[in-house]
Amino acid sequence: MNKLKLLSLVLFILPVTLFAQNNITGVVKSDDGEELPGVTIIVEGTTQGTTSNFNGEYSISAPADGNLVFSFIGYLSQTVPVNGQSKINVVLKQDIEELEQVVVIGYGTVKKSDLTGSVTSVKAEDLNPGANASVEQALQGRVAGVQISQKSNEPGGGLSISIRGSGSIQAGNEPLYVVDGVIVNNGSVAGTGGVGFTGNQNPRNPLNSLNPSDIASLEVLKDASATAIYGSRGSNGVVIITTKKGSKGKLRVGYDGYYGIQQVYKPLDVLTATEYKDVLNSIIDLGGGDELQRIDEIEGGGTDWQDLIYRTAKTQNHNITMSGGAANLTYFSSINYFEQEGLVEGSSMERFNTRINLNYDDKEKMRAGVNLNGSYIFDDFASTGLGINENGGAIYTAINYDPVIAPYTEDGSYRKSDFFVGDNPLAILNGEDAVAETFRFFGNTFLEYFILPELSAQAKLGGDVQNVRRDIFIQPYTVSGAGTGGIASIQTGRKDYVSVEGTLNYNKQFGENSLSGVVGTTYEYFQTKTFAGDARGFALPDLGTNAIGSGDPLLNNLGSGRTQAKFISYLARVNYSLKDKYLLTASFRADGSSRFGENNKFGYFPSAAIAWKMHKEGFMGDAEWVSELKPRFSIGSTGNASIGNELTYQTFSAGNQVLFGDSFYSTIVPSRISNPDLTWEKAVQIDVGFDFGLWENRLTGSFDYFNKETTDLLVSIPQPMNTGFTGQIQNMGGVRNQGFELTLSYDVIRTTDLYWNLSGNFSTLKNEVLNIGDRGDIIHGGLSQLPDFAIITPGEALNSYYGYIVDGIWQTDDDFSVTNDNVSPGDIKFRDITPDGTINSEDRTIIGDPIPDFTWGLTSNLQYKNFSLDVVMQGVQGMDKLNGNLANSMFPNNFRQNRIATPLLERWTPENPSNKYPSYVNPLASGGTSALINSITVEDASYIRLQSVRLGYDVAVENINFLNKLSFYVTAQNLFTITDYLGTDPASNASGSNTLAVDFNAYPIPRTYLLGVNVEF
């Protein structure tokens, strides 16, 4: 054979040998023996690939000397040499680190590394330890951009959550809560008060029915890219809660319980009986008060009324869980009992919870599940509300009641002040009784069918049903019930929510690229039914509300109502990853609502986001110290539909009875003007941020800048008197919220025996009203005897405080010729802004706002062998708050009432010419009652708080066959608060709103000590 023929033969045989293809088949399983469908198998170095079927089977052609790469979400990728084999079975191991970084987003999940929006994920072990009656309490200080304030510290009291500020004037500002895919129905069902009842004006917490111990993870969706998939209800952010699921294996039984005590951290510092006598008599000596109000003696050494109504309260929690699974079925169930006595005598909360989660997954054709939560809550309320003047409940009267008298008379009856209209605090606590029972059941069931390994159809049915009954009875020996034989009130309510959802889900990987998406439609139905009845004049008051029909029928008062609303929505989202470097997310939702006018039934909410895994680029070189560097950008639109039902329609209500001839007839009268053009509030948000990880993720964090503008605000506009209506809900105006957020986590020490992690968050917020249409400034917000104090005006923060600037105190040697007011040395010197020599409403100006300059949280987690120490701190800086109790002390409507001590003890006198606090001889010398709102009563409510400290010990159970876990822990909450604020709690907010910050008769914050155990069999 000549050389040319030999060369030709070699050139022919060589490529055949090099590129000989083997037809390879096999099965891919997980490390627990389950077949894995949808696994991507790629011939290394090529784009040739396939995926495993429902049975984990695959077939692919590959070079005899090539390699196959097997990859699947949540599992470690594996490269296997072909080596001429025709059958290759592979077992993939779970990637625990990757699994922990899968986060829940709206209508799906995504790996944290693939997130394009601003989402914060908090796992169960990262929630605040302690006596948390609700999820929000366990979340305080944990998430940047999330501000949580306590509407009331009473057991089960409502909390207010604001995510990246508040953008609405009259519509809701609370986030949307989603539990296991079910939207939680917020709001109170029955009324919060009752005829004559002065207590508990705050609604109960909507998440009280959820056991915090059942939570597996919690995701806070903040930017429009993350929230737009929820459309008309995403403008205030979304909180997604995922409860615990079972895992395959034998039955596991766990118990987690604690017992503890709670004490008043800081009662309001009011005058003692001796101080009260000296101060008031001194003011009378200087010309204030009346000689008849002079105090001559102190009965029995005086009375500390707060000490009488407050107590050391117990709290306890017992939680039993059972979980496990076999074959294709897993289960998790829990039973929980939680009790919290209130710090005020007579107040408490008891909650019974049960949950069951069942999940079926045959790995071939379908997945199915059921998540059910049931609860019963018994509330015993103390009369602690805002009240009206001197009928403000037990806390108000305990703060203000005359301390120089004894609590009881010689015959044992309640001692009544001769100068104070309000009742004896103990008479209120024992004579005004209010209890409530709440039954709630919510959950869902779903079925997902796999049409293809990468394509599935899912149907979901969810619901939330609440039934509430409140019984209120006011005894005839109280001031409120005197002369009527007692007052009884029964209020019942039912709230129903049903959702039906159908989606198509797609998830496919193409080599280094991946595509996932969801399209679907939802239908939601809301209904509320209420009934209330009250009666007076009982011959036998001892029966309370159990015989409400025995009252005087001429004094009965009945009422009922029913509202409903319907939503229908269409949604779509696509996520695309190019070369696992360049990420794109786009979503769209169309919402139709019965709450809006005929001309605006539908709203449309698009969003888009991009992200770049910069650390995977070649130009990063050998920067091994950079584990992650991912800049991202998003923009999107969301809406707000949190208004009442039927506001767009003309409605009618019962009118007065009229006399025709010899008979009376009932009437129906118009009560609302229709508005067919009413539409959604719209919020457009831009977010620029980046996520990073350094030194093998020893230091991780994220940074965001956001700008959110809300327009078409839903506002009640006053109407001309000749229309016969006071107002109409219309769309107008706009509000902007912008700020920065920073989250950091650093493993200070990483060793076998010692681990220490520090994590923190920091966020700023600037809120600005852009416009309010063509109407003038809106001034509102009056509570109890407080005048209107909040202003909505362009260029300023929403609900800024509107009042007088105090320039000091008039001194003896001042030039009084500059004022026309009848002021004297020792009176408050208000700034004359006009200036015309007279202080009046024209001299009011903006004196602060309730928006913090920044908020922060800091967490330390220290573990040494079997010991652990967790410390949580949080703070707020630059937030102003109207101190209603201070205003009431400086400008009392009754001379003989107690006051906050500091202003009175440091008051102006000829011997103590203070320039901060007046003499209180003539407190309303200028400005009138509106003078209550000034730069003294609006205080800086900045604070630093040690939120919780938890010390735990894990017992070594390796040699105890029947035990999987045993740990003990002690926890302390609210150990101290650093603040210059004169009230009891700078974080409280009696207004019940997250756009108005008012402290008035606040329920005291508890300092809590707990001892607990956690065991698993």
TrEMBL record:
Main subcellular location of this protein, as a coarse class: membrane
Matching Gene3D superfamilies: Carboxypeptidase-like, regulatory domain, TonB-dependent receptor, beta-barrel domain, TonB-dependent receptor, plug domain
SUPFAM superfamilies on file: Carboxypeptidase regulatory domain-like, Porins
Domain spans labelled TonB-dependent receptor-like beta-barrel: 465-975
Localization per record: Cell outer membrane
Domain of life: Bacteria
Sequence ranges assigned to domain TonB-dependent receptor plug in this UniProt record: 112-238
Signal peptide from the UniProt entry: 1-20
InterPro entries named among the record's database cross-references: Beta-barrel_TonB (IPR000531), Beta-barrel_TonB_sf (IPR036942), CarboxyPept-like_regulatory (IPR008969), Plug_dom (IPR012910), Plug_dom_sf (IPR037066), TonB-dep_OMP_SusC/RagA (IPR023996), TonB-dep_OMP_SusC/RagA_CS (IPR023997)
Similarity annotation: Belongs to the TonB-dependent receptor family.
Protein name: Membrane receptor RagA
Protein's organism: Draconibacterium orientale
Lineage, broadest ranks: Bacteria, Pseudomonadati, Bacteroidota, Bacteroidia, Marinilabiliales
